[in-house]
Design brief:
Blueprint (H helix, E strand, L loop, with lengths): L4 H4 L7 H7 L4 H20 L7 E5 L2 E5 L9 E7 L2 E6 L5 H8 L4 E2 L4 E5 L6 H12 L1 H8 L1
Antiparallel strand pairs: 1-2, 2-3, 3-4, 4-6, 5-6
Helix pairs in contact: 3-5
């Protein structure tokens, strides 16, 4: 029997559908996804412009929104296959394009997704930059455009 995500997480998983999704991932992928999930919550906690994170299922994938401040654009995390997962961004935003330009060495389609290999070490600094781009997208858009 697998341990429950709620008992192991600093940030409890709010819905059973999310727990089910997470525990259908391979163990290696689950570790990476949980690491990114924690960073999303930590970024939000450290920045009042972002505020509270709402974690839910959208399009069958875990999704992260900023419902109170509306500072960000939705981030989804989805399994591509057993060796790869992706961070998905709204295709009507410039988030993926910005990531592709800033980190050309990454597998980012420049439209909506950043693809990550489950067996590769995550670059915390670079991924936090990407997550910030999404979590502050609307704030950045109104301030800089």
């Amino acid at each position: 029997m697998k341990p429950t995500a709620k008992s192991k997480q600093k940030y409890p998983i709010p819905l059973e559908s999310l727990t089910s999704y997470y525990f259908d991932l391979t163990p290696v992928m689950l570790d990476k996804v949980m690491e990114i999930r924690n960073w999303i919550y930590e970024i939000a906690e450290s920045n009042d412009l972002i505020g509270e994170i709402e974690e839910c299922m959208k399009w069958g994938q875990p999704s992260f929104l900023t419902p109170k401040t509306k500072s960000g654009s939705t981030i989804r995390i989805g399994k591509v296959d057993d060796s790869e997962f992706a961070l998905y961004f709204n295709c009507k935003t410039t988030i993926a394009k910005e990531i592709a330009m800033e980190f050309p060495e990454w597998n980012c389609d420049g439209k909506r997704a950043l693809y990550l290999k489950a067996n590769q070490k995550l670059s915390k600094t670079k991924l936090i930059t990407c997550l910030n781009k999404a979590l502050l997208y609307h704030k950045r858009k109104t301030e800089f455009y």
